[in-house]
Amino acid sequence: MGAGQSKADTEEKVFYNETPIQFSQDVVNHLSDRSISPDTSPERQSTLDAHVRARIQAELQHLRAEEESVQREIELALERENIDREKSSVGEEVAEGDVKNSMTLMGDLEEIRTKVDRFQTRRQLSDYPAVKESGEAVVLCYRQNPTAPLDCWREVREFNASVAQAESQHLASLR
Length: 175
Fold this sequence. Notes:
The chain has helices at residues 25-36, 42-92, 102-122, 129-144, 153-174. By secondary structure, the protein is mostly helical. It is elongated, with a radius of gyration of 46 Å. The longest helix has 51 residues, at 42-92. Helix 4 (129-144) packs antiparallel against helix 5. It starts with 24 loop residues before the first helix and ends with a helix.
């Protein structure tokens, strides 16, 4: 109260300078050159460009981080939805017994992998020394008789017999 006018003063007030102001011709030329060419200096332009690039990079990093968090949220929501769907489908079809969830399937897959590994180890020739020896005998015979391979018929017959025996042993082990 009393610190300011309660009514706005609508009259225009003009102040006149009693002292003349003079500018040098260099200042006038400098100001007129600036008004004629609105381009910025190269130093100023490079500074502005660097600042703009830095802001763009910062915004790009922010957007990437935001995108990653959205993707994680979507993946978690889908995972929860799949688990809920599995639980509900298992609950509905327990009587049928043919619905399997991912944990059961992973266990089955691991069991199959162990069986395949066991099969691969059984296939090695080191388990069947007779096959390995008779095979080496056939190769040796063929090398000793390069012009008469029919002379190696005994070694070939022994090799065939050892392979047949190894096959029967292998099939018996699978049962």
